[in-house]
Design a protein that fits this description.
two-stranded antiparallel ribbon; 5 helices
Length: 124
């Protein structure tokens, strides 16, 4: 699992971990039933406290992203397909809002923006 911790971030480490795992689930990189690294192994890999990793997993479990089975580990929870789609739509909207802001700063027209989007959409 590729999680990057920034010590210079204002965001607490456990929130950085939880956010990155949520994003992996929303992007489909982690799927329903996938097992997550144990709390201890993730803490060792990231060179952080087990308590910090446990807090991240607890937040993910409270938000319904993972389930923990005593003695077996933590797994990606079954996601409501509609809710997952909404979460992904939110990500797209945020990225598009950033693109619109950037376009407006260079006075790109809506038509130019639409053409650019159409080209990019067809390439992928």
């Amino acid at each position: 699992m590729n999680i990057v911790i920034s010590n210079s971030s204002q965001e607490p480490i456990y929130e950085q971990i939880a956010r990155q795992i949520k994003n992996m689930i929303m992007r489909g990189e982690l799927r329903e039933g996938d097992i997550l690294p144990s709390i201890r192994s993730l803490a060792k890999e990231l060179q952080i406290s087990v308590i910090t990793t446990k807090r991240a997993y607890q937040e993910l479990e409270n938000d319904g992203y993972i389930v923990t089975v005593q003695g077996k580990g933590s797994f990606v929870a079954a996601q409501n397909k509609e809710l997952l789609r909404e979460m992904r739509l939110k990500i797209v909207e945020e990225k598009l809002a950033e693109a619109v802001d950037a376009a407006k700063t260079i006075e790109l027209t809506l038509e130019e923006m639409q053409e650019m989007l159409r080209i990019l959409y067809e390439e992928v």
